[in-house]
């Protein structure tokens, strides 16, 4: 009976050694699943430059702040991309881009 336990232990040790890829390195450059390509070792191409963010000015708008039951005095609002950049009762300065 004792020999059977020793034999079972040896089988487990040998099975674990056979499953390893050597030197403890478990990474592989080849795909182990059919239909899935191996991981590329090349660096990904650089991302394209981000498009210029659009700036939109709204003039003489009345703003509801969500708290008061009244609208604001006529205001000017600048939106850059999808975010409000500035709210003012004064005219928003024009942005001069490269010509």
TrEMBL record:
Highest taxon in the source lineage: Bacteria
Keywords, comma-separated and alphabetical: Signal
Annotated spans, Disordered: 20-53, 66-99
Position of the signal peptide: 1-18
GO molecular function: hydrolase activity, acting on carbon-nitrogen (but not peptide) bonds
InterPro entries (alphabetical): Metal-dep_hydrolase_composite
Descriptive protein name: Uncharacterized protein
Species whose genome carries this gene: Mycolicibacterium conceptionense
């Amino acid at each position: 009976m004792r020999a059977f336990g020793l034999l079972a232990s040896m089988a487990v040790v040998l099975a674990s050694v056979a499953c390893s890829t050597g030197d403890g390195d478990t990474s592989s450059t080849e795909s182990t699943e059919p239909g899935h390509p191996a991981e590329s070792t090349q660096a990904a191409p650089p991302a394209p430059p981000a498009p210029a963010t659009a700036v939109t000015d709204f003039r003489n708008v009345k703003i509801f702040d969500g708290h008061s039951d009244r609208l604001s005095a006529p205001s000017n609002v600048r939106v850059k991309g999808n975010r409000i950049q500035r709210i003012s009762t004064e005219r928003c300065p024009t942005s001069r881009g490269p010509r």
